[in-house]
Amino acid sequence: MKVSLIHLFQKIGRASLAIGLQNSHSGNMACLFRESEGSFKLAITRSGAQKGDLEPDDILLIDMAGKKERGASSELIVHQKVLGLKGVDASFHAHARELTLMTLAFSKQKKKIRSFSPLDPLGLTYLISIPVIKVKKAYGSPELAKAVACKLESFPVVAVCGHGLFSRGKTLMEAFFYAGLADFSARVWRLLEWLKLPAEERAEKERKWRGKLFSPPSPYHLGWERKMKVSLEKNKLKEIDKTRNRLFLAQLSPFFTGSLSLREKKQIIYAFPASTPLEIGGPLNIFDLSSGPEDNEFFWHRLIYEKTSAVSVIRAFMAEAEALAWLLLTANGHLSFFQPMDVEGRVLHPEIPVLAPAVEAAEFLELLKKYELLIIRGGGVWAMSSLSLSQALHHLSSLKDSGNYFLGLKELDLI
Of 168, 187, 170, whose CA–CA distance to 122 is shortest? Predict the structure, then answer.
């Protein structure tokens, strides 16, 4: 087995454990592996393996059509079925705490939910809908394998009631990407439940806001998985890598989402997608201020540098911020403000603008320049700094904490 494949399993295993997508032993992953003579094998994690500490012998190579191999994951039959789908080369199973909680909540409420429609911009862009299935034996059974594969023919992720999710992709990273987004969408759902919005108000917002996003992110691209080397000062490269790693580990933005940039004289150092573990990394490019890719994401970075004194910009997708926007904006509202209640939050950001996605460029720039941090419902969180990339990251970290405190007090009916 190639060393690179082993390392890939290990990196994704560590990443999934780090963000709570798995517990120490839960879940499994598999992919197709082409041997030197051209035949395909199925590479899969061993049953009971600790995903955050995978050893080379925790990854087994078996025949695609083979029966249950000794030591292979209990979900082998499911992965075999999924990897038999056209265009699918990787599959991922996670116990995904947020999504599992959501399906258990539906079950306890006696809701017969066949699918879950995300309310956040990432879920709306990449997933659209997450099928929810319930089978008699929800692990390692032919019934489960058939139901999962059937749904994954049309959707990137399927939720299994009480047992997490299965996702698929051309690569393990893509399957991991979709798994993370599904759990993120479920977290947004849970936070909205905490808010206890009146049913009529929530229904009106869902109806009026669905599909209305600000600068939707680009479709998943396999090119994101290739590290790009650029000629850059060592300390600056270290700072960018450190920030990308922190965005991921602190769950300021899900894996391979968001963007960050630095202004360097008449150039922009651009990292898109931004959120990624240090050992996985991601694309990094340098563009002239007057040029760059023709996409919405980069357009806003360039515009911010043209119209403000910013030296760094970060866009992230934070579940807490999306939930706050749902609370603070009225169904037809355009602008509101979030006022943190904790000491750090009040000192750094006494108030934070919360905008609807139809914001005009002039207002976006005016508010970002004044506050250095703003939330756009359906568009993520934007932070800038005239001092450093570290300060822009601090803006985001502080907002996440402030949002958690506020939402927690709301859940306890104390505000």
Answer: 187
The closest of 372, 370, 394 to 382, measured between CA atoms, is 372
The DSSP call for residue 251 is T
Please state, in angstroms and rounded to a whole number, the distance separating the CA atoms of residues 197 and 288.
Answer: 46
And the tokens for 125?
């862009």
**What is d(CA 262, CA 274) in angstroms, rounded to the nearest whole number?**
12
Q: How far apart are CA 267 and CA 98, in angstroms?
A: 40
- The DSSP output letter for 28 is E
Instruction: Identify the residue whose tokens are 């012998």.
Output: 57
Start-end of H helices in 95-233: 97-108, 121-122, 142-152, 172-195, 199-209
> Which among 248, 245, 272 has a CA at the least distance from the CA of 259?
272
The model carries a pTM of 0.95
CA contacts within 13 A on the Cβ side of 5: 22
Could you give the residue ranges of the DSSP H alpha helices within 250-355?
296-307, 319-328, 343-348
Query: Measured between alpha carbons, how far is 13 from 54 in angstroms, rounded to an integer?
Result: 7
d(CA 75, CA 329): 44
Q: Are 59 and 29 in contact (CB under 8 A)?
A: no
Q: Is there a contact between 274 and 242 (Cβ–Cβ < 8 Å)? A: no
DSSP 379-393: TEEEEEESS-HHHHH
C-alpha to C-alpha distance for 278 and 366, rounded to whole angstroms: 34
335-382 residue pLDDT tens? 999 999 999 999 999 999 999 999 999 999 999 999 999 999 999 999
How many H helices and E strands in the chain? 13, 16
Strand partners, 115: 131
Residues 6+ apart with CB under 8 A from 40: 32, 33, 34, 64
| Residue 199 main-chain phi, psi, to 5 deg | -55, -40
pLDDT digits (tens, 9 = 90+) for 30-56: 999 987 777 788 999 999 899 999 999
Residue 165 near residue 193, CB atoms below 8 Å: no
25-63: burial string, b at 16+ Cβ within 10 Å, e else: ebbbbbbebeeeeeeebbbbbbbebbbbebeeebbbebe
